[in-house]
Amino acid sequence: MKSYQHIFFDLDRTLWDFDTNSKVVIINICERLGVNKKCKVDFETFYAVYQQINHELWEQYRNGKVSKEFLSVERFHASFQHFGLDDLSLATQFSHDYVTDSPYMTGLFPGTHELLQYLHKKYKLHLITNGFAEVQLIKLRESKLQDYFDQVIISEYTPWKKPSPEIFHYALEKANAKIEESIMIGDDLGADIKASAAIGMDQIWTNFEKEESAFKPTYEVFSLLEILAIL
Ligand SMILES: [Mg+2]
After folding, report:
1. How far is ligand 1, taken at its centre, from the CA of residue 40, in Å?
2. 26 CA distance to ligand 1 centroid (A)?
3. How many A from CA of 189 to the centre of ligand 1?
């Protein structure tokens, strides 16, 4: 095994339980704004459609095809439209409330603090995240994660996003880390794992959803605490 010195983490869906946190916030806003009544649909049906639309828009955002502002509102606007409601101002309100409320959620995957406390003593820890800056910094503070990390690289503050190789090189430089002493930990097979592998960095794929893949990362785990046996 290599002697690692630097560990780069992804945040959303790797440490911060994005899907659980996000769903709670969306349930609350739907209730507050009466969305289910207006769309004449039950919450779970609405939410399934939203998730699909949000996923597609994030893909387009990562590829530079749409702006952050468009993505933020359109994911709700298009979801309402799917159920026959064309209400841009409701979507704008929803988007505002969502971005305001969600970073205050503090749901983390089991073992997050235990893992980070352990790793923090042995390695330098850093974050590379594609999330929106104003949201990610609040999440880190509210979830009491910020003190573990040395460098926090937020794609919005750079010209790049994962999976672009430049953001990894930029992160390595900021952390004063060499590729061969570094390992990337993340849930996204493309943006975190294949992307870091492509520049020669080792990787731990946190495959909580047990996705099938022909790609073989350096390591693969199904829960965070399995990482204790690797590092
Ligand atoms: Mg992620």
Report:
1. 32
2. 19
3. 9
Does a cis peptide bond (omega within 30 degrees of 0) precede residue 103? no
Report the candidate in 221, 224, 166, 219 with the shortest Cα–Cα distance to residue 4: 219
Inter-CA distances, 29 with 46, 72, 83, 91, 96, Å: 13, 15, 17, 11, 10
Distance from residue 14's CA to the centre of ligand 1 (Å): 5
CATH number belonging to the domain at 6-17+108-229, selected among 3.40.605.10, 3.40.190.10, 3.30.530.20, 3.40.50.1000? 3.40.50.1000
The C-alpha atoms of residue 170 and residue 160 are separated, in whole angstroms, by 9
The mean pLDDT values, 10 residues at a time, for the chain of 231 residues are 91 96 97 96 97 95 92 98 97 96 97 98 97 91 97 95 97 98 97 98 97 97 98 97
pLDDT on residue 134: 85
Superfamily of domain 18-104: Putative phosphatase; domain 2 (1.10.150.240)
Ligand 1 center–CA 88 separation, angstroms: 29
| CA–CA gap between residue 61 and residue 65 (Å, rounded) | 6
Tokens read off for 23: 């769903």
Strand order of the β-sheet with 219-221 is 151-154, 124-129, 6-9, 182-186, 202-206, 219-221
Q: Are the CB atoms for 131 and 154 separated by under 8 Å?
A: yes
- The domain ranges of the chain are 6-17+108-229, 18-104
Domains 6-17+108-229 and 18-104 belong to one CATH topology: no
Look up residue 141 and give its two tokens: 């503070």
pTM: 0.88
